[in-house]
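Everyone, describe these structure tokens:
***
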Amino acid sequence: AIDLITEHHLVGIDKSKKLDNIHCWGVYALDVKTGQVKKFLSKVTILATGGLGQVYLHTTNPAIATGDGVAMAYRAGAKIGNMEFIQFHPTTLYNSGSPAFLISEAVRGFGGVLRTKRGEDFMKKYDPRGSLAPRDIVARAIDTELKKSGDEFVYLDLTHLDPDKVKDRFPHIYEKCLEFKIDITKEPIPVVPAAHYSCGGVVTDLWGRTSIVGLYAAGETAMTGVHGANRLASNSLLEALVFSDRAAIDSIRFVKENFFKFPDIPDWVDTGVFNMEEWILISHDKREIQQLMWDYVGIVRSTLRLERAKRRVELIANEIEEFYKKTKVTADIVELRNLATVALLIIRSALMRKESRGLHYTTDYPYRDDENWLKDTIIQDIRI
């Protein structure tokens, strides 16, 4: 999918006006086998595009998690909420690629201890529970230690535990680490936090309905409100099951109760010519966005870091948009464009929230402020 079909695409609409009601009539989608963009008209459209972890340098998310649903919905004028609340898993195997290999929190529960490269059990400085502290506290502590030391990873140490019990309890982790020439019973595991789950997304009601008529969202791309500012590990699976079911039920009702007359929707016009030389330059923007987001919009934030990230990502996003408008559409270009859009939404949301709550922690406002910020962060662009 490239974009949702809405009033934005209709001929003869006054582009200077704001719309009270936006309707979704389907999508423009790229056939990756033929390179053609096709028009799919639909009475109901459901976004189920998953997460956005690829916006960060380190992530447990698959390569396709580029925030496509959120970016398309935002461009179409949907309400987007709570994008600042990104959950980072504290322990993934360092240098294990993308998606990063996840070292389960059960390893710490089993007795694994987090240490710096110099062997210090640093977690005691941050929480009396030490390595058994909750994941957001552990992730922040690791991030702080890495920024102080300049190191690229910390260690998760199991070498003091019974080797046979470790192998029996964590056979998959043991085997995977061996592939990287690490015997976890004899040497500590190099670990780094990684972007894991987005609590924000396209705002929906309890039936999966977005603020755009005829558009639903379910799964990680949706913000149903059940996670709040943080997330318990398995709640997302329950959320996906419950809300996708409810969205399906309500979409059937929506189709039965409404009369549909599609407007005259134009075919996609693709007159661009693919410029390989320029694409080589633009393709580097992905890595730059990921590095900027990791360095400035990660686990611990500040207004200075966020403003710096905003300036730089805006420049990159504008470059990408210019290239997108004049070139032939490809899957890589579509995903890069969406990645830049989502990065800016995260940055803007983080700048809006003047407190620390759940997964959003800023050194400028280190405390929770229920009086002013016990509410969702909503961003919407309703211009045509």
